[in-house]
């Protein structure tokens, strides 16, 4: 995940949110190693949104599945998700909005975490941003 690609993802996610009338978003893009590549917080986005967006994306990378799938796992195995959250230093938010990013060959290149609106809308913005960069979004 290079900086230009991350910026394209952020712009695509924000454009989707704006056109859909979403509340102010914060978009966090991580590379496959969990490093922050790009972040933007829209005017009016509430405090701690970086930490939430980071937790969605970081959790997706940590468990190798989108945060929607992690939510399902949390509903079935809450003790496991609580233990994993502790193991990863608290950076796991088990609700939709954390989406894995794959290249044309299917290789994992990073994750995107979006927060600010409903979890479903956050996920839709993340998917739109990823697809705007010509990459594949993996929510499950």
What's the short version?
The chain has 140 residues and is α+β, with helices and mostly antiparallel strands. It is 48% helix and 20% strand. It has helices at residues 3-20, 49-63, 67-76, 78-87, 119-132, and strands at residues 26-31, 36-41, 98-102, 108-115, 136-138.
Question: Which helices and strands appear, and what pairs or packs with what?
Answer:
Layout lengths: L2 H18 L5 E6 L4 E6 L7 H15 L3 H10 L1 H10 L10 E5 L5 E8 L3 H14 L3 E3 L2
Report what the structure shows.
The protein is an alpha+beta fold and 140 residues long. It is built from 5 helices and 5 strands; from the N terminus they run H-E-E-H-H-H-E-E-H-E. A 5-stranded antiparallel sheet has the order 2-1-4-3-5. A hairpin with a 5-residue loop joins strand 3 and strand 4 (108-115). It is globular, with a radius of gyration of 13 Å. The relative contact order is 0.24.
Number-wise, the strands total 5
| CATH level 4 superfamily | Haem-degrading domain
Element pattern in H and E? HEEHHHEEHE
Strand order of the largest sheet: 2-1-4-3-5
Q: Which architecture does the CATH hierarchy give at level 2?
A: 2-Layer Sandwich
How big is the Rg? 13 Å
Strand content range: 15-25%
Low-confidence stretches: none
CATH structural class: Alpha Beta
Q: Please, what is the oligomeric state?
A: single chain
Q: Helix/strand/pairing class, anyone?
A: alpha+beta
The percent range for helix content is 40-55%
Question: Major beta sheet, specifics?
Answer: 5 strands, antiparallel
> Which of globular, elongated, flat, extended, rod-shaped describes the shape?
globular
Distance between the termini: 20 Å
Total domain units: 1
* CATH fold title: Beta-Lactamase
- Give the number of helices: 5
Q: Kindly state the mean pLDDT as a whole number?
A: 97
